Structures are given as structure tokens and as C-alpha cells.
Amino acid sequence: MLHMNSSIEKIGQFLFPEKIRRYLTFRLVTVFAVALFSVNFALSRLDKSAPSPELTFLINRILSVVHSPAFLFFYNVGLALGFWSVYATRTNEKYYWLRVACYGMLLGGLLGEILSFLPHHP
After folding, report:
1. How far apart are CA 22 and CA 73, in angstroms?
2. Cα gap 52→49, rounded to integer Å
3. Which site in 30, 69, 76, 94 is 20 to 30 Å from 109, CA atoms measured?
4. Domain assignment of residue 11, yes or no
């Protein structure tokens, strides 16, 4: 177990040095994710160009898989388990930065799912 903790710490020091970790909070990650979501949605609404037929076909194929009930069920179960694990480990302050990073990825996944259901062209 000690070996795993040192591996996590080495990766954490590379990705999030101590200088950056103090800014890595749930509130800032939430604001950042919602800001990116808003910009992405606004840009998709402003884009008036029509995609090529090949791109339209590819997008429709991807959306048919991503919007299938089986995919959505397992994806949302995974998101729920992820959010629950972040919440369940809230008493462990040693890896706060890791919990925030996982929360940010989960929130990004949830917002991406919501964005995939919103219309992209007016």
C-alpha cells in the first residue's frame, strides 16, 4: 500500500505541484468546468456553418451510440459511483487534490453528456 501512495504522490507532484494545489478547490474546478461548458455551448450556437455530409454522418453515428439507453445507463452509473466515491472519501485530507481532480473529470463528463443533448445549431 505504501508503494501505491508514493506512486500517486509522484504523479500528483508532476501534474499538480505544491504551488498549484492551493488553487485546486472544488469551487474553482466547478466554476472552471461551467465556464468551459458555457463557452462551448455559446460557440456551438454561434457557428452557422453546415458540416460536410461525411462529418454529419459521423456525428450521427457517434450520437446514436452515445444516446443509446444501454450506454447512458452504464455511463450514468459510472458517474454516480464516481461522485459517490469522491463524497465518501471526504474525510481523507491527504489526497484532497486527487479528489478535486476526479471531481473535475466527473463534472466534465456530466456537462459533456448534457451538452450532447442540447441542439448545436439554431
Report:
1. 36
2. 9
3. 94
4. no
Q: How far is CA 121 from CA 8, 51, 59, 117, in A?
A: 42, 11, 13, 12
The answer to the question of residue 76 being in a domain is: yes
In this prediction, residues 109-113 reach a mean pLDDT of: 96
> Domain limits at 66?
24-117
Mean pLDDT, all residues of the chain: 87
User: Please, what's the b/e burial string for 48-60 (b: 16 or more CB within 10 A of its CB; e: otherwise)?
Assistant: eeeeeeeeeeeee
Rounded Cα–Cα distance for residues 37 and 34 (Å) = 5
- Tally of domains in the chain: 1
Chain Cα centroid distance, residue 41: 15
